[in-house]
Amino acid sequence: MSTALVLVSHSEKLAEGLAELAAQMAKDVTILPAGGTDDGRIGTSFEKVQEAVQKARSEGQDVVLLTDLGSATMTVESVLDFLDDDEKEHVVFAPGPFVEGAVAAAVGAQVGSSLTDIVKAAAAKELFA
Amino acid sequence: MSKNLDTAWALAWIRGAQEAMAEHRMELIDLDREIGDGDHGENMDRGFKGAVQKLEGGANSIQDVLKAVAQTLMAKVGGAAGPLYGTAFMRMAKAAAGDSLDSQGVVAMLAAGLEGIQARGKATTGEKTMVDAWAPACEAAKAAADGGADPAAVLRAAAAAAAKGAADTIPMLATKGRASYLGERSIGHQDPGATSTAYILAVAADAAEANEAPEEAA
User: Fold this and answer.
1) So what's the ipTM on this one?
2) Record: fold of A3-128
3) pLDDT given at position B218
4) Which CATH architecture has domain B7-217?
5) What is the mean pLDDT of chain B?
6) Phi, psi of A77 (to 5 degrees)
7) For the residues of A61-128, what is the DSSP string, one character each?
8) Torsion over CA of B107, B113, B114 and B119, rounded to 10 degrees?
9) Is A78 in contact with B74 (Cβ distance < 8 A)?
10) A46–B87 CB contact, under 8 Å
């Protein structure tokens, strides 16, 4: 089972830039940016996040979501609440620093780590030790 | 003489909330500029406009109204208020399952909203958030209902407590959300989320009083 990343940022550019950065060490990983509101303002979009999750799931991939700030996390948690119960083990939020966490998670996904290990990598604790 | 709240009340409430958010848009923006990212007024205005549009064709129950509001706020509000109010309205929709709400029904609905906000935002009282308006509102509503107040009076008590709760956030130090980054500098400003909560509950009471009036006159 491969794992995709969904990067949820208040800024569309930040999500896209981070997807670009994280892809550098993870050329085979699906990295989906979900930044900004539906109409391109600063903020997060329930629908953008939900669509990214559904896209990855429709390809049969597990999904790890990362966020840039607290309200992005609340949007992600709202999306997770709306998932069917049997989907919940395939779609997880990974708390951690956005940039370092995304890079670490992308590398984890590239080398085929388990969902649990990717979430652990996204916490990127060693980088701050 | 005490009139239970019905679907017409719920629709009037949300229309009132839309008007209140439009009216206080700049005030909420200014409050949010002081200690946040300055988008609260814009987001709430956009969210409730969307909700009113979605409800243009009417609704069959209080639950339908609240659910439509929840979905719209989650989809349209880009800031933290989207998931917070969205979850509050979703939980209130679940709690307001019957044809109408009596006084204890109003209490249960408000309590469910507060629970949703706390589940989503992981905040408690004293942290300078909308919880500081919702929590006293719930307490006041319960006290009023237990004392025999009708649904409109229960909502009025909740609204008054929310307004006081919002004002009481001024001396608080923010420890949740974006305002917490400001540390001590967050002191001296009223929390925008608590403020919008007070407005939303005030128009809920307005709608209930308007709903009650024709029957009493009859």
Assistant:
1) 0.85
2) Rossmann fold (3.40.50)
3) 41
4) Alpha Horseshoe (1.25)
5) 94
6) -65, -35
7) -EEEEEESSHHHHHHHHHHHHTS-GGGTTTEEE--S-HHHHHHHHHHHHHTT--HHHHHHHHT-GGGG
8) 140
9) yes
10) no
